[in-house]
Write a sequence for this structure.
């Protein structure tokens, strides 16, 4: 019996050590999960049009980035860079925004974070679009669309389609623009995203107006009006009402 005691004690010690190690791992994972959730919460509140100020959203994104860097979480660092870049773009600081988007794109490719890569391409494209470098912006949007379709990132696919529609609209290719806008609207509607579908409907209505098709333009604006009311999107609603007034005036006085 005395001889068997040692192996028994050894087994008990190993079990205890394993339990302590497992507990330590569990604690670390719990901390990582908590930090990730905290970062996600900050990024979720970075910018909601009409509800959160740019300064507040910039501060939240900055906090998220610091936490992500401390945790050495590359995925969250990319998301934070994208949030900060979007905020800077809205403030008109396009050069600084582009630097963050390019950093996000480079790191996303390095760690094979495809959704980050896709969003980085779209955001980079928007900067070149703002600069008037439309061909270059279109290339970024199309590359993003390819990734979104391959990986079934439906929201990013709709966003890429929308921006490609804008690219074709701006370069005077109205027929292609309509095709891409309609595809974006279909995806947004299928996912119940009335807010984004209203925004694209507004762009589609402008395309029809530029092409001289006032009746189709009117239909788009009325659909957009309905979507804006349902989502309390008063920013786009004001724009829709302005365009509806213009269309009604043009129809009454052709």
């Amino acid at each position: 019996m005395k001889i068997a005691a040692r192996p028994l004690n050894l087994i008990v010690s190993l079990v205890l050590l394993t339990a302590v190690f497992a507990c330590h791992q569990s604690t670390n994972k719990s901390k990582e999960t908590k930090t990730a959730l905290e970062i996600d919460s900050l990024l979720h509140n970075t910018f909601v049009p009409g509800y959160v100020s740019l300064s507040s959203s910039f501060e939240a994104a900055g906090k998220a980035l610091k936490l992500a860097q401390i945790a050495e979480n590359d995925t969250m660092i990319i998301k934070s860079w994208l949030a900060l870049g979007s905020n800077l773009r809205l403030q008109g600081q396009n050069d600084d925004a582009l630097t963050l988007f390019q950093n996000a794109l480079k790191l996303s490719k390095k760690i094979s974070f495809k959704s980050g890569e896709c969003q980085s391409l779209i955001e980079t494209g928007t900067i070149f679009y703002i600069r008037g470098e439309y061909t270059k912006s279109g290339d970024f949007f199309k590359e993003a669309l390819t990734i979104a379709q391959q990986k079934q990132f439906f929201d990013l696919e709709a966003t890429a389609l929308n921006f490609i529609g804008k690219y074709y609209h701006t370069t005077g290719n109205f027929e292609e623009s309509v095709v891409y806008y309609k595809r974006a609207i279909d995806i947004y509607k299928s996912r119940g995203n009335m807010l984004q579908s209203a925004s694209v409907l507004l762009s589609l209505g402008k395309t029809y107006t530029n092409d001289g098709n006032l009746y189709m333009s009117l239909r788009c604006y009325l659909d957009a009006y309905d979507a804006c009311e349902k989502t309390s999107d008063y920013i786009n609603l004001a724009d829709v009402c302005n365009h509806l007034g213009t269309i009604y005036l043009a129809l009454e006085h052709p």
